[in-house]
What we know:
The protein has 145 residues and is of the alpha+beta class. It is 29% helix and 24% strand. It is built from 3 helices and 5 strands, in the order E-H-H-E-E-H-E-E. It has a 5-stranded antiparallel beta sheet with strand order 1-2-3-5-4, covered by helices on one side. The longest helix has 20 residues, at 55-74.
Amino acid sequence: MNHPPPPSRSPRGTQRHREEGAGDRHAAPPPESAAAAREHVRELLLLAGVSLDSVPAADALLVTSELVTNAIRHGHGVTAFRADIADGVLSLSIADANPRPPTARTGTVDRPGGYGWPLVQRLAERVDCTTRADGKTITTAVRLS
């Protein structure tokens, strides 16, 4: 398993981190929880030299959490997950088994929530949704500087 060099040996902005297993023969299974996805992104942020106490790190972790939670709650589970950092941008790609694109909604007393999707759209520099007959993939770019 090849790991990128620690940030101290690579000039900032030239590092590229990707999820282990993406495209490899022994692909890692997608995270089963938002907490597992956040932990993966935390590790990438640390490898890229991003302080976990920074606002960009908090934004990246919130976007990760919301997308994975929505895939679990509304998309019948996460079917694929990819996270990488290049040129100061975290790219996330989360697929689920529901082809319906996300929609904003207002929470009610009987059905709370509705804040996650607007948060993702506000915090991410770019949000794309690609639908297929068997599901969808949400891809985002979150600037880390």
